[in-house]
Amino acid sequence: FWLKRLLEPGGRRSGPSPPQRPGAMATEAPGLLDQAERHLAEEEDKKALEAAQQALTLFRRSNDEAGIASSCRLVGHVLCYQGKHGEADSFVRGELNRVQASDDKAGEAKLLLALAEINCGKRGPKSRAEALDYAAKAQEKFREVKDTKMEATACLALANIELKGKDHQKGAEQALALAQKAEDMFKGAGDKKGQAAALHTVAAAHIKAKTAKAEIEPGAWIVAAQEAAKLYQEQGLRKLEAWEKVSIAQWTMIDNPRKALRLAEQALKLTREIGSAQEASALGLVVNCHLEIKDTSTAWMRKEASEAVKVAKEGVKRFKSKGDKFGEGQALMALLLAYLAKEDESQVLKVAQQAGGVFRELGDSTSEALVLQLCPQTLLKKSQTDKALQAAEQVIRRSTGFQEKFLALQGMYEVLLKAKDHRNAIAVAKEIQHLAEGAGEKRKEAAARLMLGNVHLLQEDLVEAVTLAREAQAMFHDMDAHKEEAEALRIVAEVHATGRDYEVALRAAGRAKRLLLQAGDMEGAAGTEFLALQIQLLMLVQGRGEVPDAKIDPDFAQDCAEALEFAGEAVALARKSGNKKLLASVFCTVAQLHTAAMQADQAFLAVDEAMSLFREMEDQLNMAGAMLIESDVHLISGNINKALAVVNKALTIFREEGDTQGESIALGIVEHITGPEEELVEEPQWSEEEWQRWQQEQWQAQYGHMGGAEPGQGQAEPQQAHPQETAIVKKQRAPKQDTGEKLSVNNLSQEVIQRRLMEIVRFSVDIDDDEEVDCDKPLMQMGVTSKSAVTLRNALSEELPGLNMPFTLVFDYPNINMMTELILESVPAGGGRRR
Question: Where do the record's region annotations for Disordered lie (predicted)?
């Protein structure tokens, strides 16, 4: 009722107002405003809104423009506290239009500041850019009217907006300078509450710089945060004190989860004593601290996960007994995280459904969609793809708003990828793209293009994959979305690596790493460095056809040395990231590099490092993968028996774990060591008539060979067995092989190139040798697909390494004659002979 009345034109009631003395209004309205601020500090949002609206009404009756502006700003704060940012924005903006027409600088400044505070957090990058402008204008106007306290408040708003920026280091430095300036101004004005708020932002700026690996002053954040908590305590603002202590525990968790756990437990105790709404946040933090404690003992980490489950369950029970649905939902979210850490999929599914029901009651569709997303993901982990698909469809049906639909479709896309249903995955990604375009969500539109590119990469449609990834990268770049742009560059790198354009792939991976480091994502940067290391390995072993011997080929030895130097950097970055699985994977690739360089001792050391980490994590499948690399090292050491024993051990693990892909790779290595097994096929049964006819033919052949003697006339009958006795089994025909002569830039002619291209085409699409190949006929009409087009292009690139063959070779030069002309024109001067 109050808000509806205030939103009427001019903010006045349509009916007559009861008379009230101006003196009474002058004293009552400011008191109501102070009361509203106190209620908000005590997390009593309904009482705060009521008091602020009453104050606004009284200020309007007395035409107190300064009071009207202050009341409107406070109403905006309460609405934001309630999560109604859009409503707050509309309310304050309407009042700003009225004040600007009256040329009230102080009132305009307060409302501009209110808009800056409303839009600095959860309304997207465009709104934050507007907020920055509003805060700067407000600060300037407060300076003109010499209102130091409000100028400091505007300065603090600028600091908080800078903290939200994408450039972590620059944003942290600018926020710190502004927050320190605001703290000095509040201190000078004697405003302890404002000073505490500024100190909180000082601490937050230091933390942001630290996460960006650009720490400004070690330990400075804790000094500022503890001083803020002390100031809140001195003023009796216990709930703000509790909020600050929860923040301290959360920031401590970055470096020391064990210490953070003690602080979080103390903060949780305080929130319960004073009845703070921060209790749910403190409970979630205690759970997270348990889960963040890392130990070399897997049993100890499981114990921490069990403790987290216990804490979360107690929280759920407590909030239920209080009838606090919001707290219950947050506690269920914490319980979900704990069960995920325990890898208890059955409980994850059960709790996700419970949490989804609570959020549905609260009308929080975004949180509901978020927890229900865990159901298909958990079912995928249990390899229950069909049930995961059904769960994903259920989430889509329940989704209403844009964000929920986006998350639901994203979950469906992941399920379809796991099921290798690429056709439907493309359809879902296109649906996401259309949804984002309709909502004007450029970031999500770019993400959809990236999803499409990823599917095309899996289908080995490299042209479409790299086109979509580049489009997404350009969009993310324009938005300064560094992490997302890095992900697009990762796909670009993978596409070029698949197409054997290794230099281009390395450049893309290198730029992705720099962007992630700039965004403060150490783990992401380490993962990208691992990708670059894998590309280095591919350059060594795939870019040369036959792998040279590093002991006798100095060029190859030099390439190996450079790759291993790069590997050292990858190991260091993986260590810094703290991701043990990633570090173990890097060691596996390092071992492969040492193997290529014929450095068995170093390769064994790297494999041992990887095995130790995988064993620590009880990761059986990756241990088996490391064993396959170990078997290669035994082979270059000349120990065939040991190699076979190790790979057979890995084969057993793959079979026990049901990993068919790993089993296939292991069998391939066994075949490489022992030689291929003959594939036996049963010979068809002959009838008696066919047998007699065959026997007669054999006798006639034998008779002719013996010079015309009839059987039984001085010669014994040949002892030829029944074909079913000697040819019960026979080897199946081997698959068709490419046996043609390779091209060389030193001996090229139109005839040689055409003949070789025909051979490659025959081999790529399995055309019979007696079938004529038309050199003017488009290759796509002969059966060349996008995948076999890549095979053809790669074959030419290997045989003619000096020539740059584009991904679009088959599309730009669609037949053999056109390709022949391209090759002849591309031969370097003096690099070949034309006839």
Answer: 8-29, 705-726
